[in-house]
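Known limitations

Structure tokens in this collection are predictions and should be treated as such. Users comparing against experimental data should check residue numbering before alignment. To illustrate the layout, the record for Lipoprotein is reproduced below. The input appears on top and the generated tokens appear beneath it.
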Amino acid sequence: MKCIHRLALLSAAISLLVGCGGGSGSSDSNDGDGNTKPEVGTTLKGKAIDGYIIGATVFLDLNFNKVKDANEPSTITREEGDFDLNIPDLYVKCAQYVPLVVDVPVGAVDTDFPNTPIENAYSMVFPPQFALSTDQDLLNLTPLTSVVWKQVEQELRQEQTSALSCDTILAAQDLREDITRRLGDQEERVASRYNITVEELYGDYVESGDIELHQKAQALVPALQKSYEETKRIVDENPNADFAWVEYFYGEWDSTSSAYNDDWYRYEMVQTSNGNFNSVTMLMSDDLNTELSVFNQSEMTTIQRDGVNIEHVVHIEKSGLNEYDCLNDEWLETIELQSSGVRNYTYSTVQDWSSCKSAGSAIVTQSLVTKDHQDPDLFNTTEHVFLDNNDSEFNHLIGVSDTVTKADLTPVRTVINTDFYSEDAHGSDSWLRTRSVFSEDLDQPAQIMTSHDQDGQWTRFTRFHNGTHKNECGESEDSLSVEQCHATHTESVI
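Generated tokens:
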């Protein structure tokens, strides 16, 4: 069976392409070119890139000491950084659980500077395969898994009572699975944040010639390292949480929001249970070591009783030097596949988080909301917004979260046309209808979410299984395009 492994080492901007297939040969220790020959095993085919590196030694580090010992399979990189590392049967299983080390000696050649041999030796480490993302025969070492290897190795050493080896890592199945899950989750966040696959962002930039992407990858290295390290800490501090993570990101490159400036941010999320979470985004210093101010903060609390879901959100967003926009948002809805309810919310300007949590307002905006679920997915919603001077006929459901019943909320659906293509305003000041289509087929988008509103504006958000997404805009469903979104954004900026 043929398999190709795509490995990228961010901290040194190196990538490794590894293929594994059956190998054969005698028990001779050398093939005449300085390469260890296998008895019967497999071959790792790869490429070392920092420019392409010629003359580096690649070896399987069986005892995690970063030194090539006599029994460890090794080979030398050739033109364009290519190498074939033969792994004897004895070590085939271990190849999945121990790192590869690339020793770049004095005199090796970096093809970016072919007339200037390397004057200072250095080493690079490629993580064990268990810490990498897999997709059938394709194994990717992402920049994330590469740059955090130092933290992963430190974690492994802390958790193991004996020295690291193939056997100790093989026995630590729960730890391996936990590390793999956290790395995979963080990889998805990188793809979503920057709307580019990790493979593209940190691939073979020499071959692609995309220097801009390569420079972005290098700039992200410290943020990715700190993200992994602090996510591990916050997970340990919240062992019973549904999920928790920390993400450092650069606002200029963020594709999820236009609210961020060209600065570094730190986002922390802890969801203790479904519908209950706290999150905060901090503006950071350029060295990522100092929190300068709160950029935004959110809290959601949810309770369910007597067939009613009661959800309260408090959110602040920085709007001035010492000011924040404050939102207090309450959703009351029936607990059923075809739910109905109201959303009551107020806006104000405050100086800090505590002021927002205690803020009150006589001006309340109310929405009538319907939702259609196919467990666990929400596939159809309507929201009709009534400003404070426009009676929705459900104003009696403001300020009643302690007493509201399912019978109070059910009539909402009887007055709203829930058909996605309907343009009925029902007397509201504004409305939005949204439809989502989900697919687990990897050849299809993971989600396509289409919306239209009272102004005849249409949008479509497409999320792909690799974590990236696409936004389209238009004045009809048939005219949706990415270019129209860009044009709309430019007009709003002007």
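For this record: The chain is about 20% helix and 40% strand. The radius of gyration is 27 Å. Please report discrepancies through the issue tracker.
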